[in-house]
Design goal:
Elements lengths: L9 H6 L12 H13 L4 E6 L4 E2 L2 E2 L6 H6 L5 E5 L8 H21 L2 E5 L22 H4 L6 H15 L12 E4 L18 H18 L5 E5 L8 H4 L11 E5 L12 H18 L2 E7 L9 H12 L6 E4 L20 H9 L3 E2 L10
Parallel strand pairs: 1-4, 1-10, 1-11, 4-5, 5-6, 6-7, 7-8, 8-9, 9-10
Antiparallel strand pairs: 2-3
Length: 369
């Protein structure tokens, strides 16, 4: 079912939008996406799924497939991807990773969907991957900041990301905009950039350098920069503890599995309060807001979509550009966050899909204009 989405006079609305982007040289399409997401967030929310078109429950690499599309007839409006494959691997592997990632981003853009890029960044100063491993991982944030021992190496890694950003041209010859979400869940300790492994000042310096180098030195103008800690806050002040400043962020969000049923524990009231804190800050600062990651692994609660997620999204007058649930592993029988044909939550997900508030890829009309 294709929901009627009325955007009559939408261009006029957009031209008066108060949403301020941090890149004044952003491409026309990136500016349009930013403003359109802001306007849409006043009445709707886009649904997203990590790695939706790359693989799903029991499959991988099929053309134009997603588990969400198999259930609803439409891909998610937001497709999550990751820059993880662009560093920490042999050069030929990085090139191969970039090629498949490029196809994913360009295909999404050509269909009229939106890509958000996470960065599970392998530690550039030690072994251990992107997770923190005691006695293995280096406290690399202090090493990659300007003047640090690994700063030049970090610049080379950012050049690889910039080269990728310059390469994602759609069939109309324009660059695909991407929502770039570096250093996510920075208030936890599980990643090497987490709170226990670097100072607030060093993290902020690295964030500001990252944006400045990509935008001002390497000429990347198709990124929307997203800040997304985990859910370890109960006040605006706590939320902003490691915030790099309004001049360095386009979109504020957060990741929250803990309040939405992880390990059978629900605290929807706390989750709603956090959604409100982030949405309220975005309104005040003229930023976009989003629920950057959530979900319930294996979705054992057959009414989770409407009773937990949708009710929480509608509980307060929040303006959120999108909500993204995590990936469906291709091999694990239990690691999935979106339904697939036959999964117990499919009927409820269809109710979620058909709700006028939720938008999927088929509902998007000219989001880049």
């Amino acid at each position: 079912m294709l929901k009627p989405l009325l955007i009559a006079g939408f261009t006029l609305l957009v031209s008066h939008s108060g949403f301020a982007q941090i890149d004044t040289k952003a491409t026309k399409e990136t500016k349009a996406l930013y403003r359109n997401l802001g306007e849409l967030s006043k009445k709707y929310i886009l649904f997203g799924h990590q790695a939706a078109t790359e693989y799903g429950h029991g499959w991988s690499g099929d053309e134009n497939r997603s588990d969400v599309k198999s259930v609803t007839g439409s891909h998610p409006a937001i497709i999550g991807a990751d820059f993880s494959g662009l560093s920490g691997h042999p050069k030929d592997q990085i090139e191969k990773n970039a090629e498949s990632l490029r196809k994913n981003v360009v295909d999404t853009y050509n269909r009229g969907g939106v890509t958000t890029m996470a960065w599970h960044f392998n530690n550039p100063a030690s072994a251990g991957g992107f997770y923190w491993k005691d006695s293995v991982s280096a406290k690399a944030i202090a090493l990659i900041k300007p003047g640090g021992s690994h700063h030049e190496k970090y610049k080379e890694i950012l050049k690889t990301i910039a080269d990728f950003a310059h390469s994602v041209k759609g069939k109309d010859g324009t660059l695909a905009p991407m929502i770039f979400r570096p250093y996510h869940e920075l208030d936890g300790d599980w990643f090497w950039w987490g709170k226990g492994h670097c100072s607030r000042e060093d993290l902020i310096e690295v964030w500001q350098f990252t944006v400045s180098y990509l935008r001002d030195e390497l000429g990347v103008h198709n990124f929307i920069y997203a800040f997304s800690p985990d859910c370890k806050f109960t006040t605006e002040q706590e939320y902003l503890e490691r915030y790099p400043g309004d001049k360095w962020v386009d979109l504020v969000g957060f990741d929250d599995y803990a309040d939405f049923g992880r390990d059978g524990k629900y605290n929807l009231k706390a989750g709603v309060q956090k959604l409100k804190i982030v949405s309220d800050y975005a309104k005040k600062a003229n930023k976009l807001a989003a629920f950057t990651e959530s979900g319930l692994e294996s979705i054992p609660d057959k009414n989770w979509w409407t009773e937990s997620l949708l009710k929480s999204l509608k509980a307060e007058k929040v303006n959120l550009a999108y909500v993204l649930v995590w990936r469906n592993d291709s091999k694990s029988p239990t690691h999935f966050y979106a339904p697939f044909p036959g999964q117990v939550s499919v009927p409820d997900f269809m109710t979620f899909y058909n709700d006028p508030y939720t938008l999927f890829e088929k509902d998007l009309k000219s989001i880049y204009r």
